[in-house]
């Protein structure tokens, strides 16, 4: 079966073996000597949280590639501990991706690696991915790889805790919507509206994404103009974090990012124990993150978690799937778990009694819900996968099983697309997408 083929469905049982072959073929086709590109067309470089999710899938079929994936990413770690969200492939022509190295200028910053990277980060799901990769293939080679990665994973967490706790409240602040992973989520509309940028700035650039995907499915030119304005502000300040509160245009505490930050400490505690290191400090930090997240980002009026805009010190009103992400925290209090399960099963997310409908990324009942546009409504496997892990963690196996079926059915019907229409299941964005294939392998293995 080729990477673009889709197993035939005739109303009977899904061809699970065919789906597995499709997933492996997709990952093989996207393999690039020591890492996996998310997509050969839309995303030809290495992306941070993509590599983490992809490593989980590789562990099921080629464990050595799982460790290569993570190792190659962490070779690009900056001296301050940040793991950049893009690592550029020098073999590609200038202009193969926008925004490319010429915009980021990472080489101008002291303490950066020899390869070109961005200056932003993404949700720190890497420690969890490393732990899961080892669990999937618990052999001496995997343990040795964990031992090599552990100091880098600790440094990643230290960077976030020491450099990005802008409010001093125990939570990490994202300085750009791209750092959240959910680039154009409605959660960012309010804080983004205050960013001074003119859509006309985009006339000086050629967007790469709309050459390979329908512009109606992507962020707008005004979104991109604001994205570039934020990048320029951070870059021109040397990507320094010490003065962020004094004027950086975008400062938000994100529920998903901070849930990943806390989950990473839980994962590091398990990794430390495997390596014979005292895990106590990781457990203490994990507890502190959960306490801060509940205190700062939980809205009892809506029963969900919401981002906090540090520029206004207010919670953002949009009800998006970001609010469900804290389910991945094993120490989330039971009453908050119950509230998030109720939110997930409500008409806003429309996953019904057994959660057997695709999980959208935004409130289905909201006037600005868009079923086709990137993170403003479509279903993504990585988010569903995270929420499913949270449901299993908190003893909701039947709901987790329904969500698993819905994700498998999306790929069975449309292939390994980047994202999917949350009602019709139509494939959107890039075909042959890396983390969709990788997380499908993980779902099938269960």
What would you say this structure looks like, in words?
Keywords: Glycosidase, Hydrolase. Belongs to the glycosyl hydrolase 63 family. The chain has a single domain (16-445), classed as Glycosyltransferase, CATH 1.50.10.10. Helix content is 44%, strand content 5%. The protein contains 15 helices and eleven strands. Helix 2 runs antiparallel to helix 3 and helix 14 (397-414) crosses helix 15. It is globular, with a radius of gyration of 20 Å. Mean pLDDT is 92; it is low at 1-11.
Shape summary: globular
CATH topology heading: Glycosyltransferase
Helix content: 40-55%
Distance between the terminal alpha carbons, to the nearest Å? 23 Å
Structural class: mainly alpha
**Low-pLDDT ranges:** 1-11
Keywords:
single chain, 446 residues, mainly alpha, Glycosyltransferase, 3-stranded antiparallel beta sheet, two-stranded antiparallel sheet, 15 helices, 11 strands, 44% helix, disordered N terminus
In short:
Belongs to the glycosyl hydrolase 63 family. This is Mannosylglycerate hydrolase MGH1-like glycoside hydrolase domain-containing protein. By secondary structure, this protein is mainly alpha-helical.
What is the topology?
Layout: H1 16-30, E1 31-32, E2 35-36, E3 46-47, H2 48-61, H3 63-74, E4 86-87, H4 101-104, H5 126-136, H6 140-163, H7 177-180, H8 189-193, H9 221-235, E5 252-253, H10 255-275, H11 280-297, E6 298-299, E7 304-305, E8 308-309, E9 314-315, H12 334-344, H13 381-393, H14 397-414, E10 419-420, E11 427-428, H15 434-445
Antiparallel strand pairs: 1-2, 3-4, 5-8, 6-7, 8-9, 10-11
Helix pairs in contact: 1-15, 2-3, 2-5, 2-15, 3-5, 3-6, 5-6, 5-10, 6-10, 10-11, 13-14, 14-15
């Amino acid at each position: 079966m080729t990477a673009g083929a889709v197993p035939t469905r005739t109303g009977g049982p899904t061809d699970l073996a065919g789906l597995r072959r499709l997933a492996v073929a997709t990952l093989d086709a996207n393999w690039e000597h020591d890492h996996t590109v998310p997509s050969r067309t839309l995303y030809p470089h290495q992306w941070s949280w993509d590599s983490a999710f992809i490593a989980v899938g590789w562990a099921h079929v080629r464990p050595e590639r799982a460790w290569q994936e993570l190792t190659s990413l962490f070779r690009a770690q900056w001296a301050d501990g940040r793991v950049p969200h893009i690592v550029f492939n020098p073999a590609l022509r200038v202009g193969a991706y926008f925004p490319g190295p010429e915009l980021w200028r990472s080489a101008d910053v002291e303490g950066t690696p020899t390869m070109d990277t961005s200056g932003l980060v993404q949700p720190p799901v890497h420690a969890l991915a490393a732990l899961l990769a080892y669990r999937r293939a618990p052999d001496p080679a995997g343990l040795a790889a964990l031992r090599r990665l552990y100091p880098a994973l600790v440094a990643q967490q230290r960077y976030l805790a020491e450099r990005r706790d802008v409010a001093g409240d125990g939570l990490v602040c994202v300085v750009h919507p791209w750092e959240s992973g959910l680039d154009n989520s409605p959660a960012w509309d309010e804080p983004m509206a205050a960013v001074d940028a003119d859509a006309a700035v985009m006339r000086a650039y050629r967007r790469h994404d709309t050459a390979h995907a329908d512009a109606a499915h992507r962020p707008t030119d005004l979104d991109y103009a604001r994205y570039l304005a934020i990048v320029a502000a951070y870059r021109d300040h040397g990507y320094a974090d010490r003065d962020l509160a004094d004027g950086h245009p975008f400062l938000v505490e994100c529920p998903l990012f901070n849930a990943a930050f806390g989950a990473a400490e839980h994962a590091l505690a398990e990794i430390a124990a495997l390596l014979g290191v005292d895990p106590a400090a990781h457990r203490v930090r994990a507890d502190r993150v959960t306490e801060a997240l509940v205190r700062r980002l939980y809205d009892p009026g809506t029963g969900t978690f919401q981002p906090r805009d540090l520029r206004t010190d207010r919670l953002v009103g949009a009800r998006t799937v970001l609010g469900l992400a804290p389910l991945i925290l094993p120490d989330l209090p039971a009453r908050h778990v119950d509230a998030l399960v109720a939110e997930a099963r409500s008409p806003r997310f429309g996953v019904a009694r057994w959660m057997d409908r695709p999980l959208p990324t935004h409130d289905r009942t909201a006037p600005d819900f868009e079923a086709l546009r990137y993170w403003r409504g479509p279903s993504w496997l990585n988010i569903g996968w995270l929420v499913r892990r949270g449901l299993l963690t908190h003893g909701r196996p039947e709901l987790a099983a329904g969500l698993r079926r819905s994700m498998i059915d999306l790929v069975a019907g449309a292939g390994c697309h980047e994202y999917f229409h949350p009602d019709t299941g139509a494939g959107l964005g890039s075909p042959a997408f890396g983390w969709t294939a990788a997380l499908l392998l993980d779902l099938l293995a269960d």
